[in-house]
Write a structure and sequence with these properties.
- Helix 2 (about 30-55) packs antiparallel against helix 3, helix 2 (about 30-55) packs parallel to helix 4 (about 90-110) and helix 3 (about 60-85) packs antiparallel against helix 4 (about 90-110).
- The chain is mainly α.
- It has one domain (about 1-110).
- The chain contains four helices and no strands.
- It has helices at about 5-20, 30-55, 60-85, 90-110.
- It is elongated and about 45 Å long.
Amino acid sequence: MKQYAAYPLLLLLLLALSACASNLATPTNVEQKLGYAYAGLAAARDTTASLLERGRITVDEARQVQSRADQVRTGLDASKAALDAGKPESAMESLETAQKLLIELENYLNTKGGS
């Protein structure tokens, strides 16, 4: 039964991705983009745990991914802080940097069998 524990999460992720692909929920401002990035980060962390549980990545690989995920979180938090301080340009810059790191993580996880 343990092998099926990740299915609800994967279903939710697939639904979110299909909504994005159909342009029904395209983020249009920094706040929305930030929300999507936080959701993507959570999905990357969950995928990492699932891959580790299934033996698709090693403990060391999972630690490296989580370390990179921590860097993404720091960037997202910096973006939110800049936004809260009324600095939208700085917020967008931090967000774009964090998104690039997140895309790298997602690509890596996809090569290991995450989806």
